[in-house]
Amino acid sequence: MKDETRRLEILRISDTGAVKERDLVVREAPVTIFLNDVDLVTLLCSPKDFEYLAVGFLFAEGLITGKKDIKRIFADNKDGVVWVETVDGKKPRDNILARRFITTGCGKGLSFMGSPKHMKDLKATSDSKIQAGRVALLMKEFQERSLIYRKTGGVHSAGLANARGIVAFNEDLGRHNAIDKILGECVLKGIKTDNLILMTSGRVSSDLLVKAARARIPVIVSRSAPTDLSVRLARDLGITLVGFARGSRMNVYSNERRIAAGPTTRRKARR
Amino acid sequence: MKDETRRLEILRISDTGAVKERDLVVREAPVTIFLNDVDLVTLLCSPKDFEYLAVGFLFAEGLITGKKDIKRIFADNKDGVVWVETVDGKKPRDNILARRFITTGCGKGLSFMGSPKHMKDLKATSDSKIQAGRVALLMKEFQERSLIYRKTGGVHSAGLANARGIVAFNEDLGRHNAIDKILGECVLKGIKTDNLILMTSGRVSSDLLVKAARARIPVIVSRSAPTDLSVRLARDLGITLVGFARGSRMNVYSNERRIAAGPTTRRKARR
């Protein structure tokens, strides 16, 4: 946690007056990803796990399909630079970022959006079911592991879980970075994600759905809200999208067949 | 609010079982900004106030300096396209997005970062002071106005205030978009911002500091956490940065001279 936080002198004001004291603040640092010697992108992130971030970013943006595409990877953690060399050695096209799609959520992201046709190839096919009560337990474990958030309030958490527990977890300033880091970890460690649950503390916007789809993740669980576009994509892509997972409560926005809850009733439609 | 939300059928799960019902979800839509006929960027945002967003984005990224630079602006709200024509008519350089700086916070953003030297020209010079109690009252007004957040949990709020109250306010899926929208409103309406307080519901990362600096805003107040880089920039740029403003409590991270609190004591440094 030392790398990810810093103690700064602040003035803390309350009803009882103002006190000068030292407080823990999250660190923010740039990391630049070179793909086959071409400067691809600079991300501002929590300065940790640069390799995971680089690999996850390339994977989630569709620039690599898995570990087999990576020939060499070298991270300079001090200067915040990661070099990735792929087996095919192809330089990223100049215009790879030409379709400058700045995505949102609670911030903005940059997403190399595939065509809708291509997206159809990314349909989640897993048939596995999970008990709603199990989702609640996973969310409890997720929050307990969000140590930097609990110390600083300044990061988002992301996790990948199966029904038994969390298999990958990370925290980062950026909602997208945190997800890229866990996807990168799975790519590098050869962990299959097509039967796992993606957990996030952040709001679910369409770009996050695209990331999950590339990893063939069948279920997304968020503590927070989805957008209408993310719900539409989740329905199209066969992904189960759960929002506002807090305690034993949760909202299922799509493909509810994977969530085993009690008997379902239909409430009279409200205006 | 009709444009910004949509009612969808969901499955709501709780201890008492599962209920199918209709729920309000925030809308997410792309808007593409053309600058002098060149496709500059596509943002995913709440589909409202596209003109404000486009002007605020161009201003906050340093591509225009004020209303005087704008010759014509036309927004197609249906198709999500905004054309901005500037007085100088200069096409944005091909490489204007070449330094692909994806910024973070709780998401990512794309920022046309100026050089540090240039940033020094953006120092906040305002001498005005505000009572801590007044900041708390502004935050209360800010939260009361965050209607879409209270209905959906899916947006961020941004506001500009003077000591008497809020003069510009907006909500958007994107933390950065919400700020761009209020800055754009100020540019178009000729509201001077160099003596105003920027209010945000979101975490304060370095890119947000850059936006505020371009508008010469002397005080930033957030409900949430800052990063160490944003604190450093705020100190360098003469900006007062207040975080965790909740009720009568708040943390002042930089240039505390502008916040009038009670008497200050120094607590023994903690390890």
Explained architecture:
Two copies of one chain form a homodimer. The first copy, chain A, is α/β, with parallel strands linked by helices and 271 residues long. Chain A has two domains: 29-116, Roll (Ubiquitin-like (UB roll)); 130-260, Cytidine Deaminase, domain 2, CATH 3.40.140.10. Chain A is 26% helix and 35% strand. Chain A contains seven helices and 17 strands. Chain A has helices spanning 50-60, 116-120, 132-145, 147-152, 175-189, 206-214, 228-237; strands spanning 5-14, 17-26, 29-35, 38-45, 70-76, 81-86, 101-103, 109-110, 130-131, 156-162, 165-172, 197-200, 219-222, 240-246, 249-254, 259-260, 264-266. A six-stranded mixed β-sheet of chain A has the order 11-10-12-13-14-15, sandwiched between helices. A four-stranded mixed β-sheet of chain A has the order 4-3-6-5, with helices on one face. A two-stranded antiparallel sheet of chain A has the order 1-2. In chain A, helix 6 links the parallel strand 12 (197-200) and strand 13 (219-222). The first copy, chain A, is flat and about 55 Å long. Mean pLDDT of chain A is 88; it is low at 103-116.
